[in-house]
């Protein structure tokens, strides 16, 4: 069986079933047996719904973006041109 990621529509459907009908992971998994979801995947979505009340990504989660200031750009250019250690 191949793991299938949850679409946004799937997550919202799980959220509605959890909040309105208080369904658990096993019941949801049995209802949508043809989706090839895993029990642990449904449990993860449910725990996120229980903790935050939402299925959306939290702001600030994930890897931070690098800053592209003029100083860092010139430092990288100096390193690339001269192959020396940073100042």
Protein architecture, described:
This protein is mainly alpha-helical and 87 residues long. The chain has a domain at 8-52. It is 55% helix and 0% strand. It contains four helices and no strands. The chain has helices at 8-21, 25-31, 39-52, 70-82. The longest helix is centred in the N-terminal third of the chain and has 14 residues, at 8-21. It starts with 7 loop residues before the first helix and ends in a 5-residue tail after the last helix.
Briefly summarize what is shown:
This protein has 87 residues and is mostly helical. The protein has helices at 8-21, 25-31, 39-52, 70-82. The N and C termini lie far apart (53 Å).
Question: What key attributes describe this structure?
Answer:
mainly alpha; elongated; 4 helices; 87 residues
- What average pLDDT do the residues reach? 87
Strands, total number = 0
Alpha-carbon distance between the two ends: 53 Å
Using only CA atoms, what is the Rg?
22 Å
Low-confidence stretches: none
What is the tally of helical segments? 4
Topology:
Blueprint: H1 8-21, H2 25-31, H3 39-52, H4 70-82
């Amino acid at each position: 069986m191949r793991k299938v990621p949850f679409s946004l529509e799937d997550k919202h459907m799980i959220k509605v079933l959890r909040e309105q009908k208080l369904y658990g992971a096993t019941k949801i998994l049995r209802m949508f047996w043809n989706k090839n979801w895993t029990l642990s995947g449904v449990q993860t979505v449910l725990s996120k719904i229980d903790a935050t009340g939402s299925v959306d990504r939290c702001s600030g989660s994930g890897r931070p973006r690098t800053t592209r200031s003029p100083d860092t750009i010139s430092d990288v250019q100096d390193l690339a041109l001269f192959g020396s250690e940073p100042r």
